[in-house]
């Protein structure tokens, strides 16, 4: 019984006081989540060959779900998960290359707009969250309303609640628009309005005393 208690205490101490333990679990969890995501139209597949740099580059998945890869030609990829695509490409390229050292990265095409510092179209890793893409766009401006962030996906508007804490909408898709709303006029101009009122009151008070 004492041995069991000691093991439990040791496990607790490792989790609580060794940052690498929880960090490693987090990284592994994110990798598994990305591996299970589906490849979609509009995605970009980036290939990096360590020994054959001439084959490295990026290809885009078209609206039919196809992508044209060097040497392999056209492959239907939108029926695959990202993990399946990575495995498939490594197997297929091994038919042409001896032990190909290949890294495959799937990127999503996301528009970030509204009250951010650098609105633009961004190609982001499939694991990226709303918080990640807003950070990539320079963050929310001083006039931005952090409680009014939506993801526009086709005709759907999804409220991104808790985005700044990394919760809420888990996965972004190519074609998504992340829009940060603007604070209302009263909130933006509250301080100048109060300052003006104070100055005006002071002026009226001074005049009245004369």
Question: What keyword list fits this structure?
Answer:
single chain; 210 residues; alpha+beta; wza like fold; Outer membrane lipoprotein wza fold like; seven-stranded mixed β-sheet; two-stranded antiparallel sheet; 5 helices; 9 strands; 37% helix; 27% strand; disordered N terminus
Molecular structure report:
- With 210 residues, the protein is of the alpha+beta class.
- The chain folds into three domains: 2-35, no CATH class; 37-100, wza like fold (2-Layer Sandwich); 108-186, Outer membrane lipoprotein wza domain like (Outer membrane lipoprotein wza fold like, Roll).
- Helix content is 37%, strand content 27%.
- It has helices at 2-17, 19-36, 82-93, 130-136, 185-209, and strands at 44-49, 57-60, 66-69, 73-76, 102-114, 120-125, 144-153, 156-159, 177-182.
- The strands form two sheets. Strands 1, 2, 5, 6, 7, 8 and 9 form a seven-stranded mixed sheet that branches. Strands 3-4 form a two-stranded antiparallel ribbon.
- β3 and β4 form a beta hairpin.
- The chain is elongated, with a radius of gyration of 26 Å.
- The N and C termini lie far apart (88 Å).
- Mean pLDDT is 84; it is low at 1-18.
């Amino acid at each position: 019984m004492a041995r069991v208690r000691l093991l439990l205490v040791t496990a607790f101490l490792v989790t609580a006081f060794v940052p690498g333990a929880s960090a490693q679990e987090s990284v592994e969890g994110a990798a598994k989540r990305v591996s299970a995501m589906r490849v979609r139209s509009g995605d970009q597949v980036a290939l990096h060959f360590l020994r054959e740099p001439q084959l490295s580059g990026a290809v885009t998945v078209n609206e039919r779900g196809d992508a044209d890869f060097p040497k392999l030609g056209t492959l239907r990829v939108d029926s695959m998960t990202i993990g399946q695509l990575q495995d498939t490409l490594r197997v297929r390229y091994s038919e042409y290359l001896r032990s190909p050292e290949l890294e495959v990265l799937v990127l999503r095409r996301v528009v970030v707009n509204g009250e951010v510092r650098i609105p633009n179209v961004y190609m982001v890793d499939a694991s990226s969250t709303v918080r990640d893409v807003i950070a990539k766009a320079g963050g929310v401006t001083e006039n931005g309303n952090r409680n009014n962030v939506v993801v526009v996906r086709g005709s759907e508007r999804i409220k991104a609640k808790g985005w700044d804490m990394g919760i809420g909408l888990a996965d972004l898709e190519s074609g998504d628009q992340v829009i940060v709303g603007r604070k209302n006029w009263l909130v933006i101009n509250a301080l100048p309005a109060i300052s003006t009122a104070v100055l005006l009151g002071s002026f009226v008070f001074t005049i009245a005393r004369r």
